[in-house]
Amino acid sequence: MRRRRGRSPQHGGPEVSGRWDEWCAAAGSGRAAEAEVLLARLAALPAQGSPHERAAALAALTAAPPRLLLLLDRAARSPGAAQAGGSDVLGLLLRSFAADGRVREAAVEGLAGCGGPAAVAGLALRCADWVDAVRARARAALLVRSAPEEVAAAVRVLLRLADRSRTGALLAEYRGLLCGAPHRRAVRVLVADSDRAARRFGVALALELGEYARGDLLRTALRDRDQVCRTLCAQRLLDLEPDQAGRLLLAGDAAVRELAVAALPADVPATRLVAPLADRARMVRVTARWQLYGRGEPPSAVYRRQLGRAGRSTPVRLLAGLAAGLGECGDAADVPALMRLLDQRRAAPPMVRRAAVRAVGRLAPQGELVGLLGPLAMDPDPGAAREVFAALAARAPDEVPVEIRWIGSVRPEAAVRRAAARIGGVHPRPARAYEQSGHSPR
After folding, report:
1. Is there a contact between 333 and 300 (Cβ–Cβ < 8 Å)?
2. Record's superkingdom (predicted)?
């Protein structure tokens, strides 16, 4: 007969063992009720027998985010929390959450004699215990652990406890311990850890210890999945080899490109700064402009010159970046050049039109703004139309004719209607069913 969902088998079969990951994920969401349910399920496991089930539960706890241990520790202090049995690692870990300090102290002594990430994570958690004796025993037992997987488990928990006053300088002390030669392998394991906080900790420590080769620094700065790790490695690479700035300008991460632009030599030719000046990220454009300001060259002149040279073969992203950059540092005299990008007889790509509209909205005199941008209220690109109404609402809300306001209120795009509603006078038309579903009536 088929077993009912959630009923534990007598011999720890895989039907229920496979659900511990699901229950741990639910409890790790942060809801106190889910953590209490998981704690009750763990405590209900028989102390003797069902070894497969206890092993599956311990494996799920070990693989779960470290936040789950903190949630279970809090749930165990609620009135009526169940007490766990068993002398294995799972039983000791659960008893280390107990409200009674003597029970926790005995559990810490038991965990000190056990190996594995789960035992070490329990010891790290008790390093923030409110009882001095428990805290001291856990701290002493933790500092002698050197196995890479145990160090990683400890760091994950200690990082979550770093802001608690009872831990003191334990994280710094543990970090200093990892700087020793016997722990270099553990540092390399931290660099590849799946936990984001632990991995950032490991990368920073590895950089301090010189564990990265220069090729690894470049590869991490360009391709790593975490922005903090990319930035750390890019900065270290530029400190060692400033000539690598040119390669880092090709990075997908704007923060890395910003560091690369700042590391360029002061006498770098202005032509080499064209791409950073037209970068899609504003902070990269700002850094590139400061390079020119620092040597007395106005960046607006570079923008004007490059826009004057632009033709049909100019990349769309470069043209849009030049328009956006000129809008950030130009003046009213640049409006005619920007309006040429908005000529409806030779429509520029949508990305270029959006940047040009935004630039005109910043630079055009207030009295001319409606005359320049009003005819673009019916632009077929929703992004460009949204920029039109955003600029009018920000700088000339009282001068916008009711006809233009009405156009904005009846546009099918919700973002455009919201921008037009900020001008005032005409309320946006409610969205119909076809607009909410993303389909057009045409």
Report:
1. no
2. Bacteria
Its pTM stands at 0.77
Stretch 315-327: mean pLDDT, rounded?
Answer: 93
As a whole number of angstroms, the distance between CA 263 and CA 155 comes to 33
Q: Which of 158, 172, 94 is nearest to 128 (CA)?
A: 158
Residue with tokens 């992004």: 383
- Residue 351 CA, chain-centre distance (Å), reads 26
Distance CA 118, CA 17 (A): 18
* 3-class secondary-structure state, position 342: coil
CB 82 within 8 A of CB 39: yes
DSSP state for residue 225 in the 8-state scheme: S
- Are 295 and 268 a contacting pair, CB within 8 Å? no
- Identify the band that residue 439 occupies on the pLDDT scale cut at 50, 70 and 90: very low
Q: What are phi and psi of 231, to 5 degrees?
A: -65, -40
Question: What are the pLDDT digits (tens) for 9-48?
Answer: 444 343 445 688 888 988 888 888 888 888 888 888 877 6
CB 422, CB 389: distance < 8 Å: yes
DSSP 149-206: HHHHHHHHHHHHTTT-GGGTTHHHHHHHHHTSGGGHHHHHHHHT-SSHHHHHHHHHHH
Q: How many CB atoms lie within 10 A of CB 324?
A: 24
Distance CA 101, CA 90 (A): 18
99 C-beta neighbours (distance < 10 Å), count: 12
Distance of alpha carbon 420 from its chain centroid, rounded? 32
Answer left, alpha or beta for residue 425, where phi above 0 means left and psi between -120 and 50 means alpha: left
